[in-house]
Write a structure and sequence with these properties.
Blueprint (H helix, E strand, L loop, with lengths): L8 E8 L5 H15 L3 H21 L8 E8 L3 E8 L12 H4 L13 H8 L2 E7 L2 E9 L5 H10 L3
Length: 162
């Protein structure tokens, strides 16, 4: 039996709406990945998904400018991760955008700039959800990583003995 649920990492990374904050976000994800033992590819996938959403918030969430905060909350274990990103920017549900795969059918010069980022997020994560509530954009992503806790293998090995 896994102990993942008993000792999840529960961390919050508070970012400002500036591109240079992406480095702190990536460093935080790398630190969490090292603590729970994720392979480098898992950390890179999570970084890509989070970066895509944060870049959109920085670029479009606060058209009047000024310094604003973006909260990234991460609950992680060796076998799963949930990321919640909240901001007080203009309401925007990226899940309601046109199907990005349809953009690939257009000639290159006819394609709008952007539009494929949410496609990557959908491909990298198992579940995604958006809501606007309490004056906040709230985006939640979840991924089952499929890694087993070392204790699982030991218990299975011990349980198979006669």
């Amino acid at each position: 039996m896994s102990n993942d649920w008993q000792f999840p990492i529960d961390r919050e990374i508070k970012l400002c709406n500036r591109m240079d904050e992406l480095q702190r976000l990536n460093e935080g994800l790398e630190e969490i990945g090292a603590e729970v033992g994720w392979p480098e590819r898992t950390v890179l996938d999570l970084s890509l998904a989070c970066e895509e959403l944060v870049v959109n918030i920085v670029n479009y969430g606060f058209p009047s400018g000024g310094e604003h905060h973006i909260d990234v909350m991460i609950q992680a274990s060796p076998s799963s991760v949930e990321v919640r990103i909240e901001d007080g920017g203009v309401p925007f549900n990226p899940l309601q955008e046109a199907d990005p795969l349809a953009l690939l059918e257009l000639e290159l010069e006819d394609r709008p700039i952007g539009g494929l980022g949410i496609f990557f997020v959908k491909r990298l994560m198992d579940d995604i959800h958006y809501e606007y509530a309490g004056g906040l954009n709230r985006f939640r992503m979840w991924k089952q990583l499929g890694f087993k806790d070392k204790n699982d293998d030991q218990e299975q090995a011990g349980g198979n003995k006669k």
